[in-house]
Amino acid sequence: MSNLKNPIRSISLVISLLLSIVGTTVFGQNKVGILGVDHIGMNVPNMRQAVTFFTDVLGFSAVTTIGPVPLDDQWKKTNHIQPSTGPVTIKMIKAGTGANIELFEYSDNKGNNKQSGGDDISASHIAFYTSNIDQSVADLKSKGVQFLGDPFLMPSGDTEGERWVYFLSPWGSKMELVSYPKGKGYEKNSPSTILWSPKDYVDKSNEKNNQQPLTDTAIRSLVEKHLAIWNERNTQKRTSLMAQVYADNIEMVDSHFIANGQKEINGFVNDLQEKSPTARFTHIKAINVNHNVARLFWQNGTPEHPDAVTGMDLFVFENGKVVRLYVFVDEKK
C-alpha cells in the first residue's frame, strides 16, 4: 500500500468505508442515520507494543491492518499532522463485545508524545466492562499492569452499584475497568432509555444458549394457564400463575394501551373482573403454535351471552415464558 500513486485518496476511501458502516441505514436512531459506536480510535507510539498489550494482556483480537500509508502535505495540513511526520499504520482490534478499537502508529512521529492530563480538553479513556472486577484487577496486576487506586463503589445516585478503577497502558494511556452486575441506580426509576452495556448483551446471549426449546405441547399448556390467569378471581392464586407463565418483564400490547410487567397486567385483570363479575374467557378454536409463537382465539362473556366480546391473543415465548402478548379485540358487529 505504501507504493500507491495516490495514498491520500486510498486512506480517504478506507475511512469513508468505515464511516459508512454506521451512517447509511434508514433505521438509525435519528435523521442522521447513526446506529451506534463502530470504533474508538487512538494513537500509539509503538504498534507492536500496543497489539501485544491488547491481545496478550487484555485478551482481545487484532483483525485488520492498513499501511504503512504515506501521507501527502495537504492531508497532513487538513488533519493537523506535523509536516515531517512519516507514514501511518492502522490496526483494528476486536475488543470483546462492543465497539472496536482502532490503533494508529505514525512513523517518525513529530507530534506531541506527552499523554493528556486528567483535566485536559483532549483527555479521553476507554472503559472495559467485567463481571468480576476483583478477579480482573488481580489478573492484570499479575501481568504488570499499573492501577491508579483500588476499585471504588458508587454509593448512591444514577451510578449506584457501579464499581470502577483506572489503570494505565504501557505507553501511559488511561483506561478503566467497570462492573455493575446488578445494574445501576438510575434503572430503579424505570427510565424510558437504558444505557447500552456489554453486560446485557452477554446476559441475553447466555440465556439464549442455555434455553431449552419449548415443545408445542408445553406451549399449549402455558396458553391454557394464561386463560386460567384471566379467569382467576383470587389475587394470590393469579399472581402465582403469572409467575409460571409470564416473564418478569412481559409486555402486553393492546390497541389502546401497553402494560409492562406482571403487576400492571394483574391490575388490568382486576379491573376487568370488577366490571364484569360473572364473565369468563374461553377459547373458541384450537391453539395454534409455530415455533416460539402461539395464538389463541377467545371469547368473553356471561353464561347467558358467552361471546359478548371475541378476539385473539398472540404470544411470543423466550426462556420458557411469555415475553410479549399482543391482544386483538374484534370489532362489535
UniProtKB/TrEMBL annotation:
Do you know which Gene3D superfamilies this protein is assigned to?
2,3-Dihydroxybiphenyl 1,2-Dioxygenase, domain 1, 3.10.450.50
Q: Name one GO biological process term.
A: L-methylmalonyl-CoA metabolic process
List residues of the VOC domain: 36-180
**Pfam families recorded:** Glyoxalase, SnoaL_2
Q: Which GO terms describe its molecular function?
A: metal ion binding; methylmalonyl-CoA epimerase activity
Query: Key word Metal-binding present in the record?
Result: yes
Q: Which UniProt keywords apply?
A: Metal-binding
- Highest taxon above the source species: Bacteria
The identity of this protein, by name, is: Glyoxalase
Which organism does this sequence originate in?
A: Rhizosphaericola mali
